[in-house]
Amino acid sequence: MSDEKQNDGRLLSKAEAVEYLGGAPITIKTIEALVRRREIGFLKIGRALVFPKSALDAYIAEHTVQPSPNPWGLTDAALRRIREDRSGGRGRTF
């Protein structure tokens, strides 16, 4: 079995959760603040807090900002041409 499949149901410590979320600027203090505000799923086993990988994945999904759609329905190439025109036409030859 691959490491990825073995870790799917794994519980991560605070330090492992920080690493999984990408490290800086996420710190253990950030994780603790997310727990206090109940913004991230966790389990309390005795005094220890552990985080299911699925809870971390859900947090990432909920906080991922999607790009805004093109309100005019233009292609990327058309938008680039407009931007070039607005910048004085540099790079275009006629």
From TrEMBL:
Residues in the signal sequence: none
Which InterPro entries does the entry link to?
HTH_17 (IPR041657), SinI_DNA-bd (IPR010093)
Report domain Helix-turn-helix positions: 11-63
Q: One short Pfam family name for this protein? A: HTH_17
Recorded GO molecular functions are: DNA binding
Task: Identify the domain of life.
Answer: Bacteria
Indicate whether Magnesium appears among the record's keywords.
no
Keyword tags: DNA-binding
What is the name attached to this protein's record?
DNA-binding protein
> What are the top taxonomic ranks of the organism?
Bacteria, Bacillati, Actinomycetota, Actinomycetes, Micrococcales
